[in-house]
Design brief:
The protein is α+β, with helices and mostly antiparallel strands and about 80 residues long. Helices cover about 25% and strands about 30% of the residues. The radius of gyration is 14 Å and the shape is globular.
């Protein structure tokens, strides 16, 4: 299996927004997050991903197919 990690551009924002909805849904197994009236979870703030130097969004591909995302945050203490 070939894994590719590609920097996401602002043009990829709609893809990230959709993937984050799936991510938030998965977390409902651990958190009591409810969907809003429009059937979506609250939008994650992506603005800083392209306007600050310490947040870096990536799209992950497996064998050329979209498989996920990552947002690397320089403020993390892990």
């Amino acid at each position: 299996m070939k894994i590719s990690v590609v920097p996401a551009t602002e043009a990829d924002r709609p893809v990230l927004v959709n993937l984050i909805q799936l991510y938030l849904y998965d977390f409902t197994a651990f958190k009591e997050w409810d969907v809003q009236e429009d059937g979506r979870f609250a939008d994650h703030q992506l603005d800083g991903c392209w306007t600050t130097d310490d947040r870096h969004p990536f799209l992950i591909y497996a064998n050329g197919k979209l498989a996920g995302f990552a947002i690397v945050d320089g403020r993390s203490h892990l």
